[in-house]
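User: Here's a chain of 287 residues. Predict its fold as tokens.
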Amino acid sequence: MGVTGWLRWSNPPNGAIETLVDLIQKEYSGNSVTRTSTQVTSYRSSFPVPAHKLPPPPHAPTGPAIPHYDRSLYTIQSNQSSYLICLAEDRLAAPGKEAQLCFSVTPPSSLGSILVATKSGFTLPPRASGSGAQVIDLGTNSAKAVRAQINTIKIESMTYEIPLVRLGLGGGSGLSSGGRKVEIEWIVRVGSLGVAGKGGIVIEAEYLSPPSAAPLTTSPFDHVQAFLRSLLPHSASSSSVSPRPSPQLWKSIGVDEEDAEGWEDLVEKGRRSGYILIGLLKTEGLV
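Assistant: Prediction complete.
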């Protein structure tokens, strides 16, 4: 199935990552697979509300009183993937209205040209835009941004596979004693969050729902959240589990909550997982 969830532990003690890894390897027979580097970047611009959306004179505001709306773009790129996950948000002038678009870009270097073609109005640095030495405004024919902000978060993590049958081998070879291949139940990524003054540990858990597993008594998301919490010591404080997107939020980015097959497709699974991660980072005030 591949349903994923994220957890952030904001104030872990020294040696917390080592303690988590020890738990995963000894109690869950987790086997280390690969090291992953993930970069989350947010771009924000503020634009004046178009004149045709303002009240007619003499009620139309002028000067600094002219209202603005925000446009945000979040991108997620991992060194293990050949695509870029993007979430674009437009907070419109009317209160409570927000448009979202979550999409993947292949190759990642094509993001700049896509945003130019759509007159997005975002400002990207040279590396992201594929341009020369200067920062470029991608909204050539749109309203000029009055504020632009770029923020980058890095997550350095190690990936572990946890078998359905706990072997008690303290490191999990991936084979049963009879030489048969063990079904992988969980993929867990444990890493550090690189944010100045607001770091901590992040854990991603992906439940694979192997054929031999017992039927779940809760929803897959609840199962993942409970597993994430179980990895932390009882004394852990200031931890946040990624909120489960509501059916309305899933629908806003074109996801049918009941569509389990979507979690089987690599890129679609990355899009959903990235959307959940961005939701957690937004809730934590990190992007």
